Amino acid sequence: MRISRYEVLMKVIELGNLTKAAGYFNYTQSAVSQIISSLEKELGISLLNRTHSGVWLTAEGEQLLPYLRNISNSHHKLSEKIFELLNMKTGLIRIGTFSSVSCHWLPPLIKEFKIIYPNIKFELLQGDYNEIETWIANGVVDFGSTCPPHKKNFKTIFLKNDKLKVVIPKNHKYAHEKFFPIQALASEPFILLETGNSNIILHIFEDNNITPNIHYIAKDDYTIMSMVENDLGISILSELVLTRSPYEILAKETNPTFYRTMEIALKCKEKPSLAVKYFIDYIVNRLQERTI
Q1: Which among 242, 289, 217 has a CA at the least distance from the CA of 99?
Q2: Are 133 and 144 in contact (CB under 8 A)?
Q3: Predicted TM-score (pTM) of this structure
Q4: pLDDT tens digits for range 87-105
């Protein structure tokens, strides 16, 4: 399917670099530059500021961005419909996801799915819960992996409850205990995973009347695991992200047990393409068959 000039422009804006956008589409940098220049000439307006350090929207481009994005999304939907009519011979599925899902769930699922539909391409955008919700709402992705509560109104599909565990250094005083006492979370130096608009960990503290002793805030699970390994504090992470952990740390259960609810979220009023529907169905069925 022919890539529209608007899709190229959106990727240039996202990456802030003509060369990187060219690599994404397997174009030359010159070809991408010509595509943008052609679009600017047609519109009669300069859309991008260009320097050696990168590109960014002009003031006029900023005002036109919502309209340009709508055109790009409409072309994507047109491509999806044609893709359906071609019996799923080609297609693109865009997914917003956080690190634990993109590392531990999606690669084997995509590998298995592509055995059935080898010409379907995937685009993964990794972010926090807030970023993923924004991408879904703006049509940047077809669906996203999320955890409730949501700030926006989405159609959601339950996947599983992912157990949360306290992670501690191997030499910690509770290293030989089966459970980590939740009240001890108030006195230990705590490393908080910042996940966006809905911080599940803070809700746990609030519900259990715990005032955490937060020493550090980080956005990356693996950074936190390294910090715990180096005796900088303890944290709470999901069982999924702790899968095949390369760090010298221990994961302790709590009593009561805490979970995060993992879901797929889509825009309410839009029917997903056939490829997206098939892949979501595939994810749900595989999770019912076994733990991935």
Answers
A1: 242
A2: yes
A3: 0.70
A4: 666 788 999 998 889 888 8
Q: Which helix (H) or strand (E) holds 75?
A: helix 59-85
In 127-203, the DSSP E strands lie at: 143-146, 154-169, 189-193
Contact present, 114 and 143 (Cβ < 8 Å): no
3-state secondary structure of 257: coil
Mean pLDDT, the chain, rounded, equals 89
d(CA 63, CA 47): 10
Indicate the SS3 state at residue 240.
coil
> How far lies 10's CA from each of 73, 125, 198, in Å?
10, 14, 28
Query: 248 Cβ partners below 8 Å, 6+ apart?
Result: 169, 170, 229
Pairing of strands 249-252, 235-238: unpaired
Reported confidence tier of residue 18, pLDDT bands at 50, 70, 90: very high
Determine the Cα–Cα distance for residues 44 and 39; give it in Å rounded to an integer.
8
Phi and psi dihedrals of 148, rounded to 5? -75, 160
Counting residues of the chain whose pLDDT is more than 70, the rounded percentage is: 94
**Rounded Cα gap, residues 220 and 202, in angstroms:** 17
Q: Residue 120 contacts by C-beta under 8 Å, 6 or more apart in sequence?
A: 88, 90, 91, 92, 93, 113, 114, 275, 279
